[in-house]
Amino acid sequence: MAQLKPEEWDAHYARGGRFRPLGPAERRLLAEHVPAPAGGRCLDVGCGLGELARHLAGSGYRVDAVDRSAVALAEARGAGGTGVTYLRLDIERDSLDRLPHAAYDLITVRLGWAFVRDRTRVLGRLRERLRPGGALCVITPVVDAVPERERGVALDEEEIGSLCAGWESA
Fold first, then answer.
1. Alpha-carbon distances, residue 45 vs 54, 92, 104, 141, 160 (angstroms)
2. Distance CA 131, CA 107 (A)
3. What's the pLDDT tens digit per position in 103-160?
4. How far is 41 from 23, CA to CA, in rounded Å?
């Protein structure tokens, strides 16, 4: 999948482009597997309109939400809510020193991993930002479970295997 430029993401959101809303199964799995510890910090990568970031803040995390699109971030800020700091940041190109915090208990990437070009490098960068015992949560469609027209944003079993390799549990 070709990586979109920030201005292409801005155009996507400006024309009303959206992704699938956060569903009840996702909410249940997040609560079950990555409940917020006391004072827990989360980094939401590719936050888009901020739905997941607001949900995680409501679950007890203090959330830093980053995206490449200024349009998406403006809409996310306008949606209100507390406990979320939004920042325009390209997780592949920009220095992670721009992040408000050095380490996180949870890092999420929802429906965005397929858009990351250099996944191995980005995975390493994110791993370095996890606190001991922290979790990386990638929420993605699987190629075999989506219609052909949506497979460009889905991962196949080999990609999922690469993503899961080297972790204590996956």
1. 13, 11, 12, 16, 18
2. 10
3. 999 999 999 898 898 999 999 999 999 999 999 999 998 888 888 887 777 898 999 9
4. 22
